[in-house]
Design a protein that fits this description.
The complex is a heterodimer. Chain A has 15 helices and 17 strands. By secondary structure, chain A is an alpha+beta fold. Chain A is elongated, with a radius of gyration of 30 Å. By secondary structure, chain B is an alpha/beta fold. Chain B has a single domain, classed as Amidase signature (AS) enzymes (Alpha-Beta Complex), CATH 3.90.1300. Chain B has an eleven-stranded mixed sheet with strand order 1-3-2-4-6-5-10-11-9-7-8, sandwiched between helices. The chains are: A alpha+beta, B alpha/beta. The structure holds zinc ion. The site of zinc ion has 8 residues of chain A, from loops.
Chain lengths: 487, 491
């Protein structure tokens, strides 16, 4: 086995489906899951004589992402044709951006363990049209569904700045969170809204020299898990291959690989980087896009505090754990709702617990966001206050929240109706404590004797009281009364 | 009487129809009677729409009887080049690959003709995908020149110009990528206008060279071209390259047509004209004399980069064509080979069977010019030449109102004379190509005949979006001469 130290070098190409109403260059609706070839028109079918017209919203969405990725926005961009023959590409060329992408030279901060972050360079951001889908269903023929053809697709290319599978995943997740925050993509992995292509190789130190393994590109990954696993697996494969063959990076030995999810391996698709000649040239049917300051400022107005910034701020400002802050900022509406509830008087940690536990569970069931559950910030703050004051227990809080979603009633009303108010009336509780003390002399002795058994016996007596009150006693108060009476 | 009717110009005809003096149906019937008689000789049409056209004519008559307002081309029988998409009839581009292709939409100019109440007679023959200068590259049929049926009508809009000259319609639409309206107009003795790039919507024009293509009118008089421009010019939201009318307003091209341009300054390019046949040179010189007698000032200029126009054109146009024609692959529509074993063969065999020789040649030229390793030496260099040619024009127009030169170095040549020598054929575009590279408007008007009684055309080029003045200048000559009134013997 190897003892050679090595570094993994990974760059990522990401395709993000933008959530515009219509396609990139025609008026067809962008809708998925529709009957094949039902969202098409002469333009996206590539009929003779048709001309593309740029979707301004798609362009603005793309610029917004490029801004969030700290890119330099091009003052002048144009469209280019990328030629290749494939049945899912009706014109046999794709309208894309070649030498003048709309954004370049940016970076993204990604979160690492323990609240640390790392800066990953962004090489370029450009916009293009997606292809359709070839369906190989049955028989000795294929079918083509062009509903997706011509939908706007954002391509983001990073620098090879990532050095582990975990970092690659972190970037992908961060990017998903970012495009959702910006409202430019639904970024639903299951629907293929985000697709990843990592480029991987290793730099191995052996006998005082550095060796670079040939770069492999893994095509078309559409889940975080597959992305992370494939990078980890490919890392090991390249190490094994180097130890076996000593092969190093050279002209034209970049390979293209695919991910076999069942076997959890990467498989060779193309040995040599195919000498693809896409014959790019400027698209004569579209005019160049010139970005002026006013337009750029209008787009900038759509920027918001980015999720990673928000996450770090929540840690500092609200004293939350990095993990909790991460869960809260996974979605913009949740993060913003959290602040509303806190501003309405909810204690941050209590509010966070309510939102990330009962809240997310309920949202999942209802397939909506936490903010869309129908609970007002005021009511939720009230509930958090009740838990904080001990009026209801934390677990009762979750039950109450469930009811709040159903009926929309105020938490106090629900707590009373369901008899979930904790008994904090010392007089009443003292009577019960006295009864329990009288009935359990053995445990009382154990408490009084101090020593090992004291804590356990105290817990036992507390439990008895809670049982007697059917869980409605405030355990903190019961505990206090017990301690006073037995010391 | 019928002949008198068929020789009317569009404006007279339309006004007669609108006033109820002439029945639209009478005109349409006369046109189809003539088509039945002469189309077998001329071969101008790929498709005719007799039933459709007669029904439309009757509808227009009914509207007029009912006292309704009718459009600017009410009842005027018009032919359109078969490169324009129509929901009626096939749109073939004279290619076997689209022989049975029926477009699901109308080109913008077709919509405009229809809403101006034109009667669309049929779709005319052309060089396949508009690639050619004689209409001999049609994959579907042969068109001859009405002035001499042993000769070509020019191309690629040869069907349209032959139909207009042969009185098989009153006016037509063509498309011009490197001279495809002007050159056949000159060969057939009619008026052909290539508007400024961006003046007329290209939506629905099957693309050859997208940055060069422009739709324009083919008519018997300058006034009819102005009338047609009134109908087809203007911005189209479906064509991003059609120009914003705030930037370049569209005007009524007929309004001041008969007002001569005062203190007209005409430029000629002696270095460039020398390549034309002597009879052509003489006719052009005589035409310029007519202007001189009208008080115009003639200046001689140099346009140093025009010599490179053909080379640049055949790179830019073929590069764009190689990409534009990639979609004809047998997968989604059009001809699909029956002998294909897999999808690669669906492409290769469908294209091999569907495209003609010249189209294949241009696709290969263009593919080569765009290939990595050759891009800079060919395509990029051609773009540089193109911008130099553009600046030649900008400079030239600082000192003159228009430039005059021949349309073609020769008059109509014999069928088959140049088919074996593509380069010779390409050279017949030498005078027309520059206007497309520069995007400026240019018109061809009849200016004489050679010893074989074949028409000669005078080309006038004007600054971008200067169609109004361009047509006025052309009209000044037309008003003084009778060339446009001459008819081919078969008429
Ligand atoms: Zn569409």
């Amino acid at each position: 086995m190897s003892n050679f130290p090595y570094k993994v070098v990974v760059g990522l190409e990401i395709h993000v489906q933008l959530c515009t109403k219509t396609k990139m260059f025609c008026g067809c609706a962008v809708e998925f899951g529709q009957p094949p070839n039902s969202r098409v028109c002469p333009v996206c079918l590539g009929m003779p004589g048709v001309l593309p017209v740029m979707n301004k919203q798609a362009f603005e969405h793309s610029v917004l992402v490029a801004l969030a990725l700290n890119c330099k926005i091009a003052e002048f961009t144009k469209w280019d044709r990328k030629s290749y023959y494939y049945p899912d590409l009706p014109k046999n060329y794709q309208i894309s951006q070649y030498d003048l992408p709309l954004g370049a030279n940016g970076f993204i901060e990604i979160p690492l363990d323990g609240g640390r972050t790392k800066r990953i360079g962004i090489t370029r951001v450009h916009l293009e049209e997606d292809a359709g889908k070839n369906l190989h269903t049955a028989g000795n023929f294929s079918q083509v569904d062009l509903n997706r053809a011509g939908t706007p697709l954002l391509e983001i290319v990073t620098e090879p700045d990532m050095s582990s599978a975990a970092e690659v995943r972190a970037l992908a997740v961060e990017l998903q969170r970012m495009v959702r925050f910006l409202g430019v993509s639904v970024a639903d992995m299951q629907k293929g809204h985000m697709r990843f292509e990592p480029n991987i190789n290793l730099v191995i130190t052996k006998d005082g020299s550095e060796y670079k393994t040939p770069i492999a590109e893994i095509k078309n990954l559409n889940s975080f898990r597959a992305l992370e696993r494939s990078v980890a697996v490919e890392e090991q494969r390249q190490l094994d291959e180097f130890l076996e063959t000593g092969r190093v990076m050279g002209m034209g030995n970049k390979t293209t690989r695919g991910w076999d999810d069942a076997e959890q391996t990467t498989v060779l698709l193309r040995e040599k980087e195919e000498a693809h000649d896409y014959r790019y040239f400027p698209e004569p049917d579209l005019v160049p896009v010139e970005m002026n300051e006013r337009w750029l400022n209008d787009i900038k107005a759509g920027l918001c505090e980015l999720p990673i910034k928000k996450q770090m701020r929540y840690v500092n400002e609200y004293n939350l754990s990095d993990y909790d802050a991460g869960v809260l900022t996974a979605e913009r509406s949740t993060a913003e709702f959290f602040v509303q509830v806190v501003d309405a008087g909810g204690e941050p940690k209590r509010v966070c617990n309510l939102l990330t536990q009962a809240g997310l569970k309920l949202a999942n069931e209802k397939v909506c966001s936490v903010a869309e559950l129908g609970i007002t910030a005021g009511n939720l703050a009230e509930l958090a206050k009740m838990i904080e004051a001990g009026t209801v227990s934390a677990s009762a809080g979750n039950t109450i929240m469930q009811e709040m979603v159903k009926s929309g009633a105020a938490p106090e009303t629900i707590a009373e109706e369901l008899n979930l108010m904790q008994k904090s009336d010392t007089g009443e509780l003292e009577t019960i404590v006295d009864e329990i003390i009288a009935a359990n002399p053995k445990a009382v002795d154990d408490v009084k004797s101090g020593g090992k058994k004291c804590k356990k016996a105290h817990g036992f007596l507390l439990g008895q009281v809670m049982q007697k009150t059917k869980g409605q006693a405030n355990p903190q108060i019961v505990s206090q009364i017990l301690a006073e009476k037995l010391n | 009487m019928q002949d008198d009717l068929l020789n009317m110009d569009c404006r007279e005809l339309r006004d007669g129809i609108a006033a109820g003096r002439i029945k639209s149906i009478t005109v349409a019937e006369a046109v189809f009677e003539r088509i039945e008689q002469y189309e077998p000789i001329v071969g101008a049409y790929i498709t005719t729409f007799k039933e459709h056209a007669l029904a439309k004519a009757e509808e227009i008559d009914a509207q007029i009887t009912a006292g309704k307002q009718v459009g600017q081309l009410a009842g005027v029988p018009i032919a359109v080049k078969d490169v324009l998409c129509t929901t009626f009839g096939a749109t073939t581009c004279a290619s076997k690959i689209l022989e049975n292709f029926h477009a699901p939409y109308n080109a913008t100019v077709i919509e405009k003709l229809l809403s101006a109440d034109a009667v669309i007679v049929g779709k005319t023959n052309m060089d396949e995908f508009a690639m050619g200068s004689s209409t001999e590259n049609s994959g579907l049929k042969q068109t001859v020149n009405p002035w001499d049926t042993s000769r070509v009508p020019g191309g690629s809009s040869g069907g349209s110009t032959a139909a207009v000259a042969g009185r098989l319609c009153f006016a037509a639409l063509g498309s011009d990528t490197g001279g495809s309206i002007r050159q056949p107009a000159s060969f057939c003795g009619v008026v052909g206008l290539k508007p400024t790039y961006g003046r007329v919507s290209r939506f629905g024009l099957v693309a050859y060279g997208s940055s060069l293509d422009q739709i324009g009118p083919i008519t018997r008089t300058v006034a009819d071209s102005a009338l047609m421009m009134n109908v087809i010019a203007g911005h189209d939201p479906a064509d991003s390259t059609s120009v914003d009318e705030k930037q370049a307003p569209v005007c009524d091209y007929l309004e001041k047509l008969d007002e001569p341009v005062k203190q007209l300054k005409i430029a000629v390019v002696p270095q460039f004209n020398a390549g034309a046949e002597s009879q052509v040179q003489t006719a052009i010189a005589d035409a310029i004399d007519v202007y001189k007698n009208l008080g115009a000032e003639i200046i001689e200029i140099e346009m140093p980069h025009l010599d490179y126009a053909i080379a640049a054109y055949y790179i830019v146009a073929t590069a764009e064509a190689s990409s534009n024609l990639a979609r004809y692959d047998g997968v989604h529509y059009g001809h699909r080979s029956e002998n294909a074993e897999d999808y690669i063969e669906v492409y290769s065999k469908s294209r091999a069977e569907g495209f003609g020789k010249e189209v294949k040649r241009r696709i290969m030229l263009g593919t080569y010019a765009l290939s990595s390793g050759y891009y800079d030496a060919y395509y990029l260099k051609a773009l540089k030449v193109r911008s130099l040619i553009r600046s030649d024009f900008t400079k030239a127009f600082e000192n003159c109102d228009c430039i005059m030169m021949p349309v073609s170095p020769t008059t109509a040549f014999k069928i088959g004379e140049k088919t074996d020598d593509p380069l010779k054929m390409y050279l017949s575009d030498v005078y027309t190509i520059a206007a497309n590279l520069a995007g400026v408007p240019a018109v061809s008007i009849p200016c004489g005949f050679d010893e074989n009684n074949l028409p000669i055309g005078l080309q006038i080029l004007a600054p971008a979006f200067g169609e109004d003045r361009l047509l006025r200048i052309a009209r000044m000559y037309e008003a003084r001469t009778d060339w446009h009134k001459k008819k081919p013997a078969i008429v």
